[in-house]
Amino acid sequence: MKIAFLGPKATFTDIAVREMFPSDEGIPYMTIPDCLDAVMKNEVDACVVPLENALEGSVNITLDYLIHEITLPILAEVTAPIRQHLMVHPQNKDNWKNIETIYSHSHAIAQCHKFLHQNCRGVQRVSVTSTAAAAKHVFDHPAEQAAAIANELAAEEYGLAVVAPDIHDFDFNHTRFIVLAKEASKFSNSPMQMVGNKTSLMITLPADDRSGALHQVLSAFAWRKLNLSKIESRPTKTGLGNYFFIIDVEMAMDQVLIPGAIAELEALGCSVNVLGSYPYYQVKQQKGVK
């Protein structure tokens, strides 16, 4: 298969693709919407995009594009550990503490706030489309006193020197990636060991905005003993105070419990869309710095 991912090569999404689809072809795109559009235009068979980070929360562009712009089912999820390193062009290795600019994705910069606050005060921080794009920029501009925050694969891919490894604020730094495709048959079983199953639902509350509506929604899952691993609100973009809810149920779609909950919610006046029922996987450990 051809798998679109947030590029260029050596992003964290690229790592997830290599783990999930070791014998398929990964094709880098420069933005998350570009990855999703590539599936819709049949340029690729599937795409892998980031959905949520343990430190910075949801990747809103993924959620919003998936909800408002396109219709693609979630076919699988993989969670991968994230290790952020500060890297420079090899010719600037000895004087890296004199860097004037740090490039990275906005989430990566936020994940390394403590290190940057303590060691890089006054250094300009520039957000780019991905951590790998930051690494590529630093390699392409050796005369610039610049550094990138990225992973070890990016350092290897673009020939950079890691001068400060593991600069993220917390050790438990993981990102959830989702696999999307038009057809379930496009997703072949991953060689990774499956951890479990999820079903993701998008729920819009009744238009009358009555008191206790969200409590009634949650009760439909609670009395059926359906475990929810995530509840998140996002604006419907139809006016202030209007939201829908993304809910992850920790089980595969069955013939009784989840359909029963959906029917109860619809009877209450809610709108319910199934975003996907899928297996999820875990990358054991991202390789460290040599």
Q: Characterize the main sheet.
A: 10 strands, mixed
Total count of helical runs of at least 4 residues: 9
**Which structural class should the secondary elements be placed in?**
alpha/beta
CATH superfamily of the largest domain: Periplasmic binding protein-like II
Following the backbone from N to C, one meets helices and strands in this order, namely EHEHEEHEEEHHEHEHEEEHEEHE
The tally of structural domains comes to: 3
Percent of residues in helices comes to 25-40%
Strand content: 25-35%
Number of strands: 15
Shape: globular
Return the CATH class of the largest domain: Alpha Beta
Low-confidence stretches: none
CATH level-two architecture of the largest domain? 3-Layer(aba) Sandwich
Query: Distance between the terminal alpha carbons, to the nearest Å?
Result: 32 Å
Rg result? 21 Å
Mean pLDDT: 91
CATH topology of the largest domain: D-Maltodextrin-Binding Protein, domain 2
Protein name: Prephenate dehydratase
Pathway: Amino-acid biosynthesis; L-phenylalanine biosynthesis; phenylpyruvate from prephenate: step 1/1
GO molecular function: prephenate dehydratase activity
Pfam families: ACT, PDT
